[in-house]
């Protein structure tokens, strides 16, 4: 017996297809209604599209009717010549497009600002092509403008030597994650990339101008239904204005190239700043000489919880992995840092917490024959997470940093002269993990070679010294004195700006794969509750009075009452002169 309706007696193919089309039309009207666009307005646009696409509904329905939406806004923009400009048509040959004109983003997001498609009015192929969508945005890909890296690009072998946290994190493949593929590549993403742990709520997008301002418009995109408050009266822009902003400003849907669990957007409404050129990497990668020795054999059995299963946080007796944090885990069952642990970390920078190297790698790299005395390194509290030798599963509450990003972050252009910054699009409770500081793992010497070779054209620099345990070592070899440099290869943390003393984030060292402390992860957590759209900042630990440092300190515009940069008008000299990191940005 067949179940094909076309085989049943009396089947009227014509009527059926009309019925299907009618229901598709109704659905299209409904989708547009959700955006506040009436059926009457949509009708002529839809009719044109159906004509142009030869009734190929798939092309119109794809990406939650993105083509229809674009065509609608296009028709509005060109109202005076509407009679000419019925629908987008391929400008080159005037033929009907066989494919959709726009390259769609995943997850039905706001139309991406990164594609440029040229179209001509239907009946006037002589007119110069007009850009239908956003202007084309240059690739983020590491380019020849990166003087230091371009002299010696990472070889495949070096890339292979990237840390295993890559695999541990999120248990998924990262096609091209550490490659130099451009962030704005129009190549469709690999279909196998699935964003795990992503609720529909996480798809919601709010976009604001800058700093702690409330969003000017917010768009719900998961089901293509917009938030009801899309009007200017309550400070939000209408969906029509969204189209305009996307055309005048620049918006990037996901700077991570799909390599993180969640997307990280970038918004620049001013177009005043050049796009940063760097290669997005979700986790640290060894550049060349760093000795990062990761092997299961180096983790003693008593240093892991091989007998555990499930979630270590649910045990009545904390397992071996809690020893590092005094027999208690750093995290509580809600995934946040425990209050006491966080408070201890925040209160760390006190004089007695500094240790001094016998021969400091930093001073040695400045002057090898006659190094200056060590300026001190802060003794840090570490978090120790369960890892591969442990019996627990990936959802264990003592595996937070290794699971990667889970918050909705956005890179935006600050208006205080600090360049790009980062904000969260959702409220973050105190103790939340925000992101890791990821970059190339360099030896201290490699870093200083880079600095010396730099012509100073890199306005922003991004090295962080991994010196949390230097003081306990007698003769730290160069290949063990490590730092992270996110200038050319880094993650979202490379955009987080500095704020003296009262920043809302704190960096905490995290031991994951290796028990020695030459190499560790640097994770950023909230020090207090942080509201959505507040700029995220951390204290780089710069000593603004150290004029011998090879990296010249920037003029601090953090605006804090506790700003340590005395050059800044009105800034007070800080009581707490921190030397937490020796990095200079
Ligand atoms: C890690 S990057 C942060 C992202 C950077 N704003 C950008 O546009 O790429 C560090 C650089 O940002 C700038 N910056 C960060 N915090 C700043 C502050 N408080 N005042 C002035 N400039 C700052 C400095 O140029 C510094 O070298």
Automatic annotation (TrEMBL):
Major subcellular site: nucleus
Record-annotated SET domain positions: 407-541
Keyword check for Transferase: yes
Localization (cell): Chromosome; Nucleus
Region (Disordered): 74-218
Record's keyword terms, sorted: Chromosome, Metal-binding, Nucleus, Transferase, Zinc
Listed name of the protein: Histone-lysine N-methyltransferase SUVR4
